[in-house]
Design brief:
alpha+beta; 3-stranded antiparallel sheet; globular
């Protein structure tokens, strides 16, 4: 019974003291609160997120005897309280109540300063190289996957924005893994330049394994990269399903595609202004109504970041175009007159919302977000694109303008903050377990280890498209990228794996055929059994990687993920 969780909502530690505290603060009320973000510089190592409540003072309620202790009184959530302990301008009281979002306490102070350690940058690589024992198997998969050719319709932008983005990001991961292995194969000095953080990993053994492995030629990798460049560009230049700037909501939406077979190929039978995605919230996952923009565009940004990393000239030439994606869902600039600031982000909770201006569900429980991990991956892509372009512009001499340099650095800093806060929020609201270092946000009667969908006022164990438990688990574990290592606590993973495996077995062919077995293999490795994980990955039918559930993965990336777990 969920009511038990909130049974004592009005039972404060000291009722009289609580009443007096309320009475002392009645003259203060917030007016137009604002959020300020100050990124690291030479004088500051942390990113500071500040909530300025800008309180109004009702002078008619002020007594001449009032002292300076009286100030604005507000409730703070657990993650606020943790950071406010370091803020000398705020006083945390003992008056707390259990809420849907955890133990919530009254604090005194007109401005909250919440520091975030964003010093750990995102990377295209894991903290350690692939293990030497798995490199031969990884190289075998790579030689096949690097030959993958994007379908004709993707080269024309005749598709939806979500699954096309997943395919582009998957292709980018394959190319990145190829370049990583090829650099390992160049010897130890070159391998050290990859900057692996884990000093306990056996880098020399991985180098020897890469040196003897049969890897794709430079020409093969370059051909795949050229293919990816064109497929990333077409969406922003000459797509059959074009993007449209929406003045009303300050964003970029897709027209949508009525996909039709014609002359042995698929085409969009519609053209602007005939836009199916603007006519129905059920088209393209609601893209035309701003649903899931960070999920969709995040994959495209990740692919663009990888291309820019490997071809800096391409990155510089297409910087402004790729920036349109970021300005739509993660715009860090308050001065941008065309796009809203941080569209998807809820700075109060720390997480994002996938819901746009209209929900297909129209739930009484408010906004929702399903995949916390895809939100993290979207911001991971933003951080990486900013990081790459900052490096490109700083090494480009006078070719880049100061405005471009500042924009790239701002994107990098914002991306790091968004990734960090989204990761912390996933651990609070989507990953459910208790340990010596972690307390579940939810009451004991919520027995599942994940939340499938989080709403404003409800946490449910289901998804939009399936009631199979394996989907509610798996949707919080994809895609398999380097950010996952900080996303998923090892204790939680070890608890989750047997439940995931059981739910996959119960789902039968559905789990395998729809790609959820790929996620299980990655989870198995992260939970501590990479050898068993590799067996599982190699047993997955090749066709599964082409399904809706599996197409964001490749066998290469799955083995890479397994081979780089700690």
């Amino acid at each position: 019974n969920i009511q038990e969780h909130c049974l004592e909502r009005n039972a404060f530690k000291d009722g009289e003291e609580y009443a007096a505290l309320l009475s002392n603060s009645t003259q203060y009320s917030p007016t137009s609160p604002k959020i300020d973000i100050e990124y690291p510089d030479d004088d500051m190592t942390a990113t500071m997120v500040s909530f300025d409540w800008i309180p109004a003072v009702n002078k008619s309620k002020i007594d001449d005897k009032d002292d300076e202790q009286k100030d604005l009184l507000m409730f703070a959530l657990p993650h606020h309280l943790e950071k406010l302990q370091k803020d000398p301008t705020v006083k945390i009281t003992d008056h707390c109540v259990p809420t849907f979002h955890g133990k919530t306490c009254l604090v005194i102070g007109k401005k909250w300063n919440l520091p975030h350690d964003t010093s750990h940058s995102q990377s295209f690589r894991a903290p350690r190289p692939p293990s030497a024992s798995m490199i031969p198997t990884l190289a075998k998969a790579l030689n096949k996957d690097i030959q993958y050719r994007l379908s004709d319709n993707l080269h024309r932008g005749a598709a939806d924005t979500y699954f096309s983005g997943k395919i582009l990001a998957r292709t980018a991961r394959t190319i990145l893994i190829a370049t990583e292995l090829k650099q390992l194969a160049q010897g130890l000095p070159a391998a050290k330049e990859l900057g692996y953080e884990d000093e306990e990993s056996d880098l020399e053994a991985s180098v020897r394994a890469a040196e003897t492995a049969r890897l794709p030629s430079d020409e093969t990798v370059e051909k795949s990269l050229d293919m990816l460049k064109g497929a990333v560009q077409v969406w922003l230049e000459n797509s059959e399903a074009p993007y449209i700037y929406d003045q009303s909501w300050g964003g970029m939406v897709n027209c949508g595609c009525n996909y039709t077979r014609s002359d042995d190929k698929g085409v969009c039978s519609n053209s602007y202004p005939d836009c199916p995605a603007l006519a129905s919230v059920n088209e393209d996952f609601g893209n035309g109504f701003y649903n899931d923009h960070h999920f969709h565009y995040g994959y495209h940004v990740y692919a663009a970041a990888a291309v820019a990393k490997l071809d800096p000239k391409w990155g510089a030439a297409h910087f402004e175009e790729i920036l349109l994606y970021i300005r739509d869902f993660a715009n860090p600039s308050k001065e941008d007159p065309y796009f809203v600031n941080f569209r998807q982000k809820d700075w109060w909770l720390g997480s994002s919302w996938a819901s746009g201006i209209v929900s297909a569900e129209n739930s009484p429980h408010g906004r929702d977000q399903e995949s916390s991990s895809e939100a993290i991956a979207a911001y991971e892509g933003v951080a990486l694109f900013g990081q790459v372009m900052t490096e490109v512009f700083q090494s480009n001499g006078g070719a880049a303008s100061e405005q471009q340099k500042e924009a790239a650095l701002l994107v990098q800093n914002a991306g790091e903050l968004l990734t960090l806060t989204e990761t912390e929020a996933a651990e609070r609201y989507w990953h459910v377990w208790n340990s010596g270092t972690h307390n579940s946000t939810y009451p004991q009667m919520y027995e599942r280890l994940t939340v499938g969908m989080l709403y404003d006022t409800m946490a449910s164990f289901e998804t939009w498209f399936s009631r199979y438990p394996v989907v509610s688990y798996g949707i919080q574990l994809m895609p398999l990228t380097p950010a996952a290592e900080r996303r998923d606590d090892p204790e939680w993973l070890k608890l989750l794996y047997p439940e995931y495996k059981k739910s996959c077995e119960e789902a039968g062919d559905f789990c395998i055929d729809n790609g959820w077995s790929i996620v299980q293999a990655g989870l198995c490795a992260a939970a501590g059994d990479p050898e068993e994980a590799l067996k599982q990955a190699l047993a997955i039918p090749a066709k599964v990687f082409e399904t809706d559930g599996g197409m964001g993965n490749s066998l290469t990336n799955t083995i890479w993920y397994i081979a780089t777990r700690n």
